[in-house]
Amino acid sequence: MDKNKHKETLPNYLLEEFGQNLQPEMNLIWGKSGLAEDTDTYISPEEIDHALSLVHGRINEDELMPDKPGTGTEITGWINTYVRFAVAAVALIVAGTLFFLVPITATVPYGEIAIIELRDGSTIEANSGTTLRYSRLYPFLNRHIEFNGEAYFNVEAHKNPFIVNTNGATVEVTGTQFNIRSWRDEPDAQVSVTVTGGEVRLFPAHNQVDPVIITPGNESRWSPQLSEPTRPEPVAIDDVLAWREQRFVFREQPLISILMELERRYNVTIEMAAPEAEQSALTAYYSQPTSVESVLDDICTVKGLRYTQTTTGFRIFN
Q: Diameter of the chain by CA atoms?
């Protein structure tokens, strides 16, 4: 390109885009660009840096001055405003993403029973002290539930399988009704699954190859001490679901597990000061227990123990 064809100053329609204070510097840069088109002319890095520094210096000066119509401050202000909006938009996106990544956690207080309704129409009737966690995108992303406690599940059919992960075991269904009892703090950490409708697959979380299929009226159990769940066996459904009617049914349960259940039901602390009796089994039925003291009276009578009231609950001893 012929150097003479390059105008020494910016065209007016471009020059008007800048304030009067910036126009000399912009013309300088424009002039340098004309020289750059001549391949025989060398422009040193120092000259380019000097020209750019003039522009940057002028912009910094204008930022400290009040806004004036037709000055470069208008452009700088627009850029700053745009940057602020962009930063705010990014912050909202990040906050929204983090919000959806944080799961919903529901914990049933001691002494209460709660029904939790899920977006797909499924319901979970949870016993005292139960905790469950699931995604905010349930059921669109998946239908996975993290679970600890005891609950009766009524699961609606859906394209995504309903999966409960509980203390090392996994329960998988599509649409059915079943009860899970799985307390992390109990000594054997046993997971019991009882089905009242449909079919349920139960398997250890680390081994999904050979799941146990549980059908209505049957129960299967698994604990970390077992390599695979027990073979499903018939069980008295009314006894398993007695907790839903505030009844107690203990079937050869260790005494320590029974005391933990009493703690959750009555929201008290029961101190066991007779460790040799913790694992002794007990079978008992209470259709309408009047109080925790009435149950403790029977337990201590049968096991040859005594109990006393404390500031937070009760203490059992020899």
A: 114
